[in-house]
Design a protein that fits this description.
The protein is of the alpha+beta class. It has one domain: PH-domain like (Roll). Helices cover about 45% and strands about 30% of the residues. The chain is built from four helices and seven strands. It has a four-stranded antiparallel β-sheet with strand order 1-2-3-4. Helix 1 runs antiparallel to helix 2. It is elongated.
Length: about 150
């Protein structure tokens, strides 16, 4: 492992926030099963499974930023790893909705010229100066690979 690698993962609270709608639906179906029909237990169980899967999927995501490449790894049963060369990154967008601001988290979108990954999302990562680090890596990669931007 290089010393200038940055390994990021979505925060656990971010994964929990993203599963809240499924948990709410599971609770509603559980109440309906109690009031109306026990068949709603199946829907409650299905929503619970979807919430659990989504939580595991988000918490198993990993972002590895190196001076040359960004690796985005995600999945539980089937792992997908995307790699984007650093010199392809063109723009940086940080979004901080109110709920993420409460927990000092942010979403970072990197726009690139890669046809397979035009937008790279790093979701639910802790607030930091990662954009400045990535900008430095992009400048070094462009100089090293002799890539010049023409508008």
């Amino acid at each position: 492992m290089q010393t200038n690698e940055i390994r990021l993962k979505p925060a656990i609270i971010f994964a929990f926030l993203k599963t809240l709608p499924f948990i709410f639906c599971a609770a509603c179906f559980l109440l309906l099963a109690w009031w109306l029909s026990p068949y709603f237990l199946l829907l409650s169980f299905a929503c619970s499974l979807m919430a659990w899967y989504r939580f595991l999927y988000i918490s198993n995501s990993e972002y590895l930023v190196t001076p040359e490449v960004i690796h985005i790894s995600r999945g539980i049963f089937f792992r997908r790893i995307d790699q984007v060369e650093m010199y392809r990154v063109k723009n940086y967008i940080i979004t901080e909705p109110f709920t993420l601001q409460l927990f000092h988290l942010m979403d970072l979108a990197l726009k690139s010229t890669d046809p397979e990954n035009p937008v790279i999302w790093l979701r639910g990562i802790p607030q930091s100066n990662i954009v400045d680090t990535i900008r430095g890596y992009v400048q070094e990669a462009r100089l090293h690979n002799r890539v010049y931007e023409i508008n």
